Amino acid sequence: MTQQDIAIQGEPVTDAMCRFTVDRPVYPGKAFFFGNEEQAEGSAFAERMFAIPGVKSVLVSDSQVTVHKTGTAEWPVIGKQIGNAIREFLGSGESVVADDVLQNMPSADTIREGVQRVIDEDINPSVAGHGGVVRLIDVVDNVVYIQMGGGCQGCGQADVTLKYGIETSIRGAVAGVGEILDVTDHASGRNPYYVPSKK
Amino acid sequence: MPRVLLLLPTATFRTDAFVAAAENLGVEVTVGSERRNSLAGLNPTGLLTLDFEHPDRAARQAAAFAAEHPIDAVIAVDDQVVLAGAAICQTLGLRHNSLESVMVARDKHRMRHRLRDANVPQPEFTLARFGGDVAACAERVGFPCVVKPLGLAGSKGVIRADDARQLLAAVERLKRILADETERAGDQPTPAAERQTCANTPATDELSFLIEQFVDGPEVALEGILRDGQLEVLAVFDKPDPLDGPFFEETIYVTPSRLPTDTQRQISLRTQQATQALGLTEGPIHAELRNTAAGPVIIEVNARSIGGKCSRVLKFGTGWSLEELIICQALDVDTAWPSRQSQPAGVMMIPTPAAGVLREVRGLADAEDVAGIESVDIVAHSGQFLIPLPEGSIYLGFILARAQTVDRVESALRAAHGRLEFVIEPTSDASCASAVSATESETRATQSVCQSSDGIQQ
Fold this sequence. Notes:
The complex is a heterodimer of chains A (199) and B (458).
Chain A: E1 8-14, E2 17-22, E3 27-34, H1 37-40, H2 44-50, E4 55-62, E5 64-69, H3 75-90, H4 99-104, H5 108-127, E6 132-140, E7 143-150, H6 158-173, E8 180-182
Parallel strand pairs in A: 7-8
Antiparallel strand pairs in A: 1-2, 2-5, 3-4, 4-5, 6-7
Chain B: E1 3-7, H1 15-25, E2 28-33, E3 47-49, H2 55-68, E4 73-76, H3 82-92, H4 99-106, H5 108-117, E5 125-132, H6 134-141, E6 145-148, E7 159-161, H7 164-184, H8 192-198, E8 208-213, E9 219-227, E10 230-238, E11 252-255, H9 261-278, E12 283-292, E13 295-302, E14 315-316, E15 320-321, H10 322-330, E16 345-350, E17 356-362, H11 364-368, E18 373-378, E19 385-386, E20 397-402, H12 406-419, E21 421-425, H13 430-436, H14 440-444, E22 448-451
Parallel strand pairs in B: 1-2, 1-4, 2-3
Antiparallel strand pairs in B: 5-8, 5-22, 6-7, 6-8, 9-10, 9-12, 11-16, 12-13, 14-15, 16-20, 17-19, 17-21, 18-20
Helix pairs in contact in B: 2-3, 3-4, 4-5
């Protein structure tokens, strides 16, 4: 196998985020989120990725690598560099996450317990006032999946509540949390608390 | 890391775009909203409550916050918050439009006066008062004319009249719309002290409205950013659906414009002339113009970016969003603006076809399958009560398309819209029924007092 045999498909998720699907597992059956260069220290895969100017965060999940870039980086340029870095990594035999990082990282169960406690004790009592509810769906390695319901589902302020309420609370209280993903189907919300209008 | 205060009204469509832009740029964000976020207690530096209704008070609240958490830029994302944004910037000493210029741009009557004083081509206009002689007012501008509220946005309350009878009906209808607005707003008048400072404007209340000449010609929109008073044109949009009334529901925007280059240059020059007349110098602007046989005519200029989710249609350079450019401008990032990506693109604001309760949206997958369609985003939710223009203020959703030509973009948008079916259950709600129909007997009873375009008759 040569590096050129490895097929990688890039698919933009948003203007700032691109998902690279590799034709083989990069981190078989597991997921890990590197939020910044500091978190990448010692982990060969992440160090390669953060060496590319403009890479802001990296989520690796089995055969998918999702990269968030800064506003100034250009996808046509860094996309190729990311592809090359993935290929070089797969040919290197190195591990995605450094052993000492994994050893020091809280287990998924510990993260799950901490996140659930924050949701139960802090978040849900607060959003209940707007008829909302937040559920913890799963924790895979350090990636947290949550779902918003009731008044939060489809709410015009859901993004604000997620980024500056839920995420801040969880990260402030639970160590080792990687990406927090909202898996809510907001389009199906039947009773959103705030409904946008063209005022 | 610089801190940006995003002024996000709770009912804005613009939240996700500005939150994503701020995150992409890696800036520290504090979100200011008029109602307390349910999680504000968990993140007091990220979630702030500001009194948008009273800009002076909002400025004091923001200044108190900034004393502990310095703010580097303030972004007012929508019409409802541009005054508060200007007041906060003034208090914090940040670069921004003057409070006066934003007040003028927010008040359609004052805007008309300023533009007239600067000889900027615009429709003839006159200010009228409910309960006065509307017919006499209309004589000043002639028929067809357009009845327009002073402060509402999104074409709400804007009605065309071709003769005196239609005019009376339109005025009565507008009166009810404004009464409903006042009722919804809780009927809380601005304190006199605040009004002196932030709303020192003649008769900009629910008792007055504009009657304007209807200007014939295709409508266009211009999106731009001002820096030190200089207009950078980001895009000129054609609006291929004729906006001839009786209501003025915006639907399709496509860019680049198909108008001749010279006409587009005139549109840009006219807009720059208007921003100078209004005194706007910084930040995003969204202008609406009619391209008449005599050249472009300003319909309005807003000190904000394009509304709804329409900004998604614009991409710059290697993928910059409009919101990223706006944040960079507010932070005074010294960079050349990247050009708009050249591929033709367009957006359709899905109009509300009937009053009632939305039960179901059918054909979504089929609409998304149309060649050139990038996304179909339904924003109305099942069970939502819908009211069409001129009383309503809801878009059902936004269709986005990109293609090789502008004609193909427009075709794709129409085809996708044609595949959507909105199941709306008519309502028997009496208040709604009264809101959407005006009887002739009521309108004939309307009397009004008019005010000349030179000033208010007391």
